[in-house]
Design a protein that fits this description.
Two copies of one chain form a homodimer. Chain A is of the alpha+beta class. Helices cover 37% and strands 18% of the residues of chain A. Among the domains of chain A are: 109-225, Uridine Diphospho-n-acetylenolpyruvylglucosamine Reductase, domain 3 (2-Layer Sandwich), CATH 3.30.465; 229-335, Alpha-Beta Plaits, CATH 3.30.70; 337-430, Alpha-Beta Plaits (2-Layer Sandwich), CATH 3.30.70.2740. Chain A is built from 17 helices and 20 strands. A seven-stranded antiparallel β-sheet of chain A has the order 15-12-14-13-18-19-17, sandwiched between helices. In chain A, strands 5-6-10-8-9 form a five-stranded antiparallel β-sheet. In chain A, a hairpin with a 4-residue loop joins strand 5 (109-113) and strand 6 (118-121). The two termini of chain A are 16 Å apart. Chains A and B meet through strand 9, helix 8, strand 11, helix 9 and helix 11 of A and strand 9, helix 8, strand 11, helix 9 and helix 11 of B.
């Protein structure tokens, strides 16, 4: 396999100008070069340094994306697909300049096939907008990262969220994609059949590719029936280990829990303050069960028995929508709740994922590490998958604290990988985690990724500088 | 993208001889060139003409596969990975000669991680052997094509089977693969964490690649807890349409059915005769529910209500293992039952898959087509996925009948593709369905597959002549 690397330089104005000239007649005021807009299209939610594109294009259709790609390809100008900008690892930065291709105006729900439990959407539709659209059909799309991300962005980062333990990740819920490849071709990755053995899995090749192989312009997604009954509850534990052990047994016994989330004491404190809760500040599991009325009652009862085995409890659960909603809104606001713990600090959210048998060990070692460093870094996680988040709050003016945090984050990833885990369970690689890919995957796998990238994007114009290490 | 095609010729003895010479010291009598063994490694279960390899190698380890690949690569000799030879579309034929790499001696269960619900196996382990191994751990692997196929082969063809409606296909149940690439490198596609957003999905790139990108030498598979309770039942219907409509409503209402299989009247007749059943010879659904005792009772009751809406019934169900086992053994023996309908005839099993909303229409049109042609061709299917099988029985000495059947199979695929379906839901492409890939995927998607193939296997030595049309 060839493994030529592209050590790019930032594109020059000479390259960008003809692209802008070519696209202006097509896009008009949907092609923007103001500094404010360009800066909004950098990596804004983390400490990864912002690297603005030269311009931002707002296409309305697959055909317009084709025109954008062709214009950029002709001058080897990078394109960076942009959803809502809620990624954490530098995914939308433009280290080599070029065009940010902002999909936020492609927000049509193209077709709902209720009888097939699927929906066809444009990539700018957000998960909340989709579920709003679906609500009176009795259907929902389960993948829920904290942010109200766009579905194109969620596919690109192989996102998941609290429901993944039951419903899988984007990998499992994308039936088919339409994408514009670096050569301007429009590819349809699969038919609408529920399964297929017909050729290479192009759908899964693009899911998680972070826009480095093409720009997603349409998605066919699997839907699920809104469960007849939902029960949600919370359960305090004496230790993180006890909580993790309860999670492990829950998963092992095959209890079809829909959500099972761990909050460490600091995270509980943040949520109490931000979401006006009054939970005891101890390790806590938030859980949810989906099914029939009898089914969720049975599940909740069994879960209560499991928690008691690990000295957890009391396990309190409710089926009333208001009570559930209050809890899960608090969980989804965790990111913002954390940021209020230390006003003015920079939040540096990250995630790792390990086999569930190593979860307690990994979370505990991480807690001890946090304590030893003195960092303020709550832990919250989709622990049913072995996936957890750490969100240090850093005073960026304090160089020593920044260095301490960087070293902590490195240890976190090495720890997860040493436990047969991954450097990211759901956030993606972007720029910031490229350096871990060799350690995680090994050289042959990285060479295989490079060979695929080079075969499909030989000029390295699709989101260059992401995923694959230089 | 480059799309250079390799119009290969069969390798010459001059190329094969040095490979055999290089490998004989390593493999000894595990390198076989007798005609009988070579013929056993061709496509034996269908009417695709057998094309024997020049030799058959039986490696014991990943390292031996590396040596085989390096020796073959040095002389551009094709390699055809071989599991149990139960594929239907010419997957294991050697149109250009070369070595069949038979994995049947790599049968170790390397590790069972019960607490993580995963298992590491060598590719020659069959699904039944794995489940036998797992039984007293309370775990099982759900993917069950009719044959007792090898897990490496099942991954390579993206197999599924009766449980897919509940547990997914091989795509959903492979956590990670070890494979030897055409360049002799050993790639590990993923870590053992339950989910990851770390780079391209190499696992899914190899699942369904039919050995055209590398040889799988180890698999990490997801396991599931054996359900506490299982209920199985059968339900007759007045018409195929009524049965399909009942399936559609079952799926739409989110009833978590584990298996839901359609047998047309001819298939019922064959099963009655072969498996000593006495079912009414009318369209029939076989169903199974997994869960708690209360859960399966609730599911069965609801299913009974749904069937009644479509004039199906009586729906009879049982939780006794013997009764269930008798039914499902009959279902798994469908292939063999069909062959007994017309002794001496050649069985030509095939499958297509359509969105479930089109299922009734597709099956009915296919039934009418069968009737019009006069073919003997039972229909049986994993209808919860929109996937069904047709198994014509052909007198190969009757050229006209062969021609009628070929035309029928073409119409079947065109019909499925016209209904947004796929030319194969679970059997794979092999040689026989390559001609449909352009119609199904379109040129840009095929070019994308070609580019990936060429990037990873530039000399076209891994199972050449499969999947991608010449």
């Amino acid at each position: 396999m060839e493994t030529k690397t592209h050590r790019r330089q930032r594109v020059t104005a000479d390259a960008v100008e003809p692209v802008l000239a070519a696209l202006t007649p097509l896009l008009g005021n949907r092609l923007v070069t103001t500094e404010a807009v360009r800066m909004q299209h950098t990596n804004t939610l983390t400490w990864v340094d912002p690297e603005p594109p030269d311009a931002v294009a707002y296409p309305l259709s697959t055909q317009e994306v084709v025109e954008i790609v062709k214009a950029c390809a002709a001058h080897r100008v990078p394109m960076i697909p942009f959803g809502t900008g809620t990624s954490f690892e530098g995914h939308v930065n433009a280290p080599y300049g070029g065009l940010s291709v902002d999909m936020s105006m492609m927000t049509s729900v193209v077709a709902v096939h209720a009888e097939d439990l699927d929906v066809v959407v444009q990539p700018g539709v957000t998960r909340k907008a989709l579920n709003e659209h679906l609500r009176d059909r009795g259907l929902f799309f389960p993948i829920d990262p904290g942010a109200d991300a766009s579905l194109g962005g969620m596919a690109s980062t192989r996102a998941s969220g609290t429901n993944a333990v039951r419903y899988g990740t984007m990998k499992d819920n994308v039936l088919s994609l339409t994408a514009v490849l670096p050569n301007g071709e429009v590819v349809h990755t699969a038919r609408r059949a529920r399964k297929s053995s017909s050729g290479y899995d192009l759908t899964r090749l693009l899911v998680g590719a972070e826009g480095t192989l093409g720009i997603i312009t349409e998605l066919t997604l699997k839907l699920h029936g809104i469960p007849e009954a939902v029960a949600a509850g919370i359960c305090p534990f004496p230790s993180v280990k006890a909580a993790c052990d309860a999670v492990i047994l829950t998963i092992q016994t095959g209890l079809p829990v829909a959500r099972i989330e761990l909050l460490d004491p600091l995270m509980v404190r943040a949520s109490n303050a931000y979401s006006q809760l009054s939970l005891p500040e101890t390790p806590m599991l938030f859980v949810e069960f989906h099914g029939t009325s009898a089914g969720v009652a049975e599940q909740a009862e069994r879960f209560g028995e499991i928690t008691a085995e690990f000295e957890g409890g009391p396990f309190e659960w409710a089926t009333k929508a208001e009570d559930r909603s209050r809890l899960w809104t608090a969980r989804h606001n965790a990111y913002w709740a954390v940021t209020t713990l230390r006003p003015g600090a920079r939040s540096v959210p990250t995630d790792v994922c390990v086999p569930i048998s190593r979860l307690a060990e990994c979370v505990e070692a991480t807690s001890r590490d946090i304590e030893a460093t003195g960092l303020i870094a709550p832990i919250v996680g989709h622990v049913g998958d072995g996936n957890f988040h750490v969100q240090p709050l850093i005073d960026m003016a304090d160089a020593e604290e920044v260095a301490v945090c960087k070293a902590f984050l490195e240890r976190l990833v090495h720890r997860a990988i040493a436990m047969e885990g991954t450097c990211t369970g759901e956030h993606g690689v972007g720029q910031a985690k490229r350096k871990y890919l060799m350690e995680e995957h090994g050289r042959p796998a990285l060479d295989m990724m490079r060979a695929v990238k080079q075969a499909l994007d030989p000029d390295d114009i699709m989101n260059p500088g992401k995923i694959i290490p230089a």
